[in-house]
Specification:
The complex is a heterodimer of chains A (about 350) and B (about 600). Chain A is of the alpha/beta class and about 350 residues long. Chain A has helices at about 35-50, 65-70, 90-100, 110-115, 120-125, 170-180, 190-205, 230-235, 250, 285-300, 315-320, 330-335, 340-350; strands at about 60-65, 80-85, 105-110, 130-140, 140, 150, 185-190, 210-215, 235-245, 260-265, 270-275, 300-310. The longest helix of chain A has 15 residues, at about 35-50. The relative contact order of chain A is 0.12. Among the domains of chain B are: about 100-200 and about 350-415, 3-Layer(bba) Sandwich (FAD/NAD(P)-binding domain), CATH 3.50.50; about 205-350, FAD/NAD(P)-binding domain, CATH 3.50.50.60. The model of chain B has no long low-confidence stretch (mean pLDDT about 95). Classes of the chains: A alpha/beta (about 350), B alpha/beta (about 600). The interface of A and B includes residues 13, 40 and 189 of A.
Chain lengths: ~350, ~600
């Protein structure tokens, strides 16, 4: 059994603008079950951060409880991390983001962590438009507690013991759309080609970005009758809109040729190239998106890809009209303007 | 691209770089593991089986395995394969019992071997256990060939050589020492079933520049001088010595001169330092003994005063390369350089000479006056006469001579049993899973980041004061263990079973060196450009699976696989397994006869 992944790399491994290799974005070796989809999501996050040239010390990864929520240990070893309590990732991100809005926030959660115990927290963080990537590693079960159905498991899908799920599922994508999320995508851990650009777009999106990533639990939910197994997802996956992320630096170079699809200009100048695989689909229309997803659900299809994006966003700090600098960088005098200032505020209410 | 067959010995052997590069195909990773386990006798015997002279080679081998070693592609230095071999030889127990049994009843076939160098001795070693009657003819009084009379004993102690030569002679070889063969025709008359010629490349080249006649007493052909030192005919050399030549013979000449009274010993070469033929480590050892190298020095003239050598004059040159990359040495405008000296040792190569082979007995020679010898079978144009070692294709090294010996022994054995000698015995491979538990392997799979260990040497002063004190002390058990851990176990193969793969990407994600890619099939050239990491080493194969469920193929670039087993550990379905490959390589009487 190996407890470390050797530091040695391919001798010709590439480096990004910061001089880091992809390996520099890794964490310690995973202790999850071999073949767990969550590990592939970690690898996709590593790839995306590497490709975006993000300085690791400017990233904060925050999670709840679950196998999925354990994963931040396995990527971005040089970044800030907070493994919080079950279902409470959103409050911790909120606090951190209020204190320092300049960090890149990656919230990692599971379907249990989000759709059961953390459901309330989830809806409020969407409402509050926190600037973050909210990654749900969705396997349809509580993996860490040995495979009970979660609230996202499909009605009628079979547990490992063969018992069908008697309850309706919660579709977190539809929830997020309903609650006003401005970047909503569904990925599959087994398709990094699709997932990495989605993550890159989400990290560049200046508001709340949510990725519901189907991530098979090889140990408790990869059997026949499961609707979250590698095989089932591959058979029922309908990519709707593929995204292709083009960083700002590349868009200003002459060699950049926009493809056939439509482009979403991101706030940092980068471009998300969207390519519709279903002509009827409109990733800019929230209502239509919700309807489309309902249809898919009825037909037993799993719609994946860039499902909805609205680049004109307001985030929590815009709404709250906070000062430009991160609060964490303000000195004591500015954070605490003193008794006189308080008096004058109080006076204004009299 | 074509699917790979991991059960094909030709595929496997390329993955085990060191074994593939070794002319005698020594199973390096296996013996390294045995050394780590302190099973020195086992390690020795494994070596002995392939290379016949582990103790000698553990000190003197040209080590073609090391530049090939995968570790050297992953980090700077390869595994110290050669010096680990010495550890096995130095620490082995009594191996007398393990020597092959020699049949009392002979098979009725008589073989003559000419020359008792490593090539002939390897033939004897392979054929004696098969019941052949072997007569060995050697001009000198003892066996070993150049290993004895050329390689100085500060690099190779006589006891080490004696032991390994005697292991073979004691099998019952009939030796005729002090017997020079002066006519092959006469020997053919004696009715041998086969004759093997392993007489080496005994003639040292002479440097014929102006002034040579006047100073003949103080200008020596390197190899003649070394053997004369060996036999005790030469015990002293002048204080100032110039050695001309850049090969290993030159290194032995200069180091020997340092021990015989040479205080200012200088090496001069025509080429640049980098292009010198001597191995890196031989150059290092010479430099460590205070020997300067003058490169780009082309000899012009021997200088003498009153009939006595006083120096050597050189023209400085520079290298220029034409469009075909061919080097030309062009004289510079600088005035010639004079290096004062009392003796000159000329070590600018050796040639073959076969004055004792009559040209009308059916052995064809080419226009360079070399016998025409088949590279596979070592047979000459006279069907029962075989050549090997330096005598076959010009001067090489010990391990090549041994490999020739093996090949010739197979031919001789086939020839003597009236079989087609071109129908060579086939290679085989066994694959054995190393899985012990869920994530446990029966080999040490963890990558150890340790740098190459340095072999300790005796103090310089002591070294220079003796011809026979061995300079290298060899690794101790601890160092050997550490060095052994650097080996990547390239013989433990990553075996992939397509139908078990669920394409979860776990192997792709965990692989430290980005070897694995799942990808749409394409021609090799295209695939090589589209993998996880650049695949530029064309000498290394791509391992291509047949289609997995999504219709893609798994492509693994063998180039820098660490054989760490992480892919197999992270695979939920055991689609990857780590399996030790044991190559069955033909040897006379081995697979050859079964
Ligand atoms: C100075 C020097 C240092 C070297 N160092 C190394 C080293 O460190 N490592 C390495 O791998 N290689 C080294 N080599 C090369 C190596 O010694 C040879 O490549 C190797 O010994 C060749 O083996 P062989 O069996 O072909 O012949 P040899 O070892 O040359 O043996 C030939 C034998 O045939 C005998 N013989 C020749 N003609 C007749 C005849 N007519 N009748 C009877 N007997 C005859 C000779 O006396 C000799 O004993 C070195 C060579 C030299 C010159
Ligand atoms: C407050 C609280 N309640 C219950 C638990 C037990 N618990 C641990 S993980 C988990 C479910 C995790 O499921 P999910 O978020 O889907 O993660 P997965 O393991 O499937 O990735 C539960 C219920 C807990 N740790 N804390
Ligand atoms: S139990 Fe399931 S979710 Fe948890 S690590 Fe194992 S495979 Fe992954
Ligand atoms: S790492 Fe070991 S097995 Fe691999 S080539 Fe080097 S010595 Fe041989
Ligand atoms: S053994 Fe597997 S994980 Fe290790 S380097 Fe080779 S392919 Fe990669
Ligand atoms: Mg879950």
């Amino acid at each position: 059994m190996s407890y470390i992944k050797p530091k040695v790399t391919h001798p010709a491994i590439a480096k990004n603008e910061l001089g880091f290799t992809r390996r520099d974005y890794e964490g310690s070796i995973s202790t999850l079950c071999a073949g767990c989809g969550h590990d592939s999501i970690s690898a996709a996050l590593i790839q995306a951060c590497y490709e975006l040239d993000l300085p690791p010390h400017r990233i904060a990864k925050i999670s709840g409880i679950g196998c999925s929520s354990k994963t931040p240990t396995y990527f971005l070893g040089a970044s800030h991390g907070f493994n919080s309590v079950h279902g409470r990732m959103p409050s911790v991100v909120t606090g951190a983001n209020i204190a320092n809005k300049d960090l890149v926030y990656i919230g990692v959660s599971g379907d249990g962590d989000t759709a059961s115990i953390g459901f309330g927290q989830f809806s409020h963080i969407v409402r509050r438009r926190l600037n973050m990537l909210y990654m749900v590693e969705n396997n349809g079960v509580y993996g860490l507690t040995k495979g009970q159905f979660s609230a996202t498991a499909d009605f009628g899908s079979a547990s490992k013991g063969g018992v069908p799920n008697p309850f309706d599922q919660i579709d977190l994508i539809q929830m997020a759309l309903q609650l006003g999320a401005t970047y909503v995508a569904r990925g599959f851990s087994g398709d990094k080609k699709q997932l990495v650009p989605l993550i890159k777009g989400a990290l560049s999106h200046p508001g709340f970005a949510m990725i519901d990533c189907i991530s098979p639990c090889v140990t408790f939910n990869n059997h026949e009758g499961s609707t979250r197994s590698y095989e089932y997802v591959r058979e029922h996956d309908v990519p709707v809109v593929t995204a292709d992320y083009v960083p700002y630096a590349k868009t200003i170079r002459v060699d950049y040729e926009p493809g056939t699809g439509t482009q979403v200009k991101m706030h940092d100048g980068s471009v998300l190239n969207l390519h519709k695989l279903d002509e009827d689909y409109d990733p800019y229309d929230r209502k239509k998106a919700i309807n489309y997803l309902l249809d898919c659900q009825e037909q037993g299809k799993i719609a994946t890809g860039m499902l909805y994006v609205n680049p004109d966003v307001t985030d929590f700090h815009d709404i709250m009209k906070t000062v430009d600098e991160p609060l964490s960088s303000l000195n004591y005098d500015r954070l605490n303007p003193g008794v006189e200032a308080l008096e004058s505020i109080n006076a204004s209410f009299r | 691209m074509k699917r790979s067959d991991i059960r094909d010995p030709d595929y496997i052997q390329k993955v085990v770089d060191c074994q593939h590069a070794c002319p005698a195909h020594t199973n390096v990773p296996e013996y390294i593991r045995l050394i780590a386990a302190e099973r020195y006798s086992d390690a020795y015997m494994l070596n002995w089986h392939s290379n016949v002279f582990p103790g000698v080679l553990g000190r003197t081998c040209d080590r073609p395995c090391e530049p090939a070693c995968r570790r050297g592609r992953v980090e700077e230095k390869p595994v110290a394969i050669c010096r680990l071999k010495r550890v096995a030889a130095d620490n082995k127990g009594d191996i007398g019992q393990r020597m092959p049994e020699i049949p009392k009843k002979k098979n009725g076939k008589r073989i003559a071997l000419i020359g008792a160098g490593p090539a002939s001795l390897a033939v004897a070693r392979d054929l004696m256990p098969l019941g052949y009657d072997i007569e060995l003819y050697e001009r000198e009084r003892r066996g070993g060939g150049f290993m004895r009379v050329q390689i100085p004993s500060f690099r190779l102690p006589a006891e080490v050589l004696d032991e390994e030569v005697d292991q073979i002679l004691n099998m019952g070889v009939k030796t005729h020492f002090g017997t020079e063969i002066t006519s092959l025709a006469a020997l053919l008359e004696e009715g041998f079933d086969a004759i093997f010629i392993g007489t080496g490349a005994p003639r040292g080249n002479w440097l014929d520049v102006a002034g040579a006649e006047a100073v003949a007493d103080n200008v020596h052909v390197g190899i003649d001088w070394l053997s004369s030192v060996h036999f005790g005919h030469t015990e002293k050399v002048g204080k100032r010595v110039v050695v001309i030549g850049g090969g290993n013979t030159a290194m032995d000449c200069c180091r020997t001169a340092r021990r015989l009274g040479g205080e200012e010993v200088t090496i001069t070469v025509r080429s640049g330092f980098e292009e010198m033929k001597a191995s890196e480590w031989e150059k290092e050892d010479a430099m460590a003994e205070g020997i300067p190298f003058l490169n780009y020095h082309q000899p012009l003239e021997y200088l003498s005063e009153n009939g006595k050598l006083v120096g050597m004059k050189f023209q400085k040159v520079r290298a220029e390369y034409d469009d075909n990359g061919r080097r030309k040495l062009i004289a510079t405008d600088e005035v010639p350089v004079t290096v004062a000296c009392d003796d000159v040792l000329v070590a600018i190569g050796q040639s073959n000479a076969f004055p004792w082979i009559e040209r009308d007995i059916g052995i064809d020679f080419d226009d360079r006056d070399m016998p025409i010898v088949d590279e596979l079978t070592h047979q000459s144009s006279l069907p029962n006469v075989f050549f090997g070692g330096d005598a076959a294709f010009g001067p090489k090294n010990i391990i090549t001579a041994v490999a020739h010996g093996h090949a010739a022994a197979i031919s001789i054995d086939l020839h003597c049993s009236s079989q087609d000698i071109r129908e060579r015995p086939v290679k085989g491979v066994n694959l054995i899973s190393q899985k012990m538990g869920l994530h446990d392997w029966s080999y040490s799979n963890a990558y150890d980041g340790l740098q190459r260990r340095i072999v300790p040497q005796v103090e310089l002063k002591a070294a220079l004061s003796s011809m026979s004190l061995e300079v290298e002390k060899g690794f101790d058990a601890e160092q050997a263990y550490e060095e052994a851990r650097r080996c990547l176990n390239c013989d433990v193969q990553t075996v992939f079973t397509e139908k078990l793969c669920i394409e979860c990407d776990a192997c792709v994600d965990i692989c430290p060196t980005d070897c694995i890619t799942f990808i749409e099939d394409a021609p090799e050239e295209l695939l090589r450009q589209s993998l996880m990491a650049p695949s530029t080493n064309l000498a290394q194969d791509l391992f291509v699976s047949s289609e997995v469920k999504t219709g893609r193929v798994m492509v693994k670039d063998e180039d820098v696989c660490l054989h760490c087993g992480l892919c197999a550990e992270r695979c939920p379905t055991s689609a990857w397994d780590m399996q030790k490959s044991i190559l069955k390589l033909p040897q006379a009487g081995g697979i050859c006869r079964t």
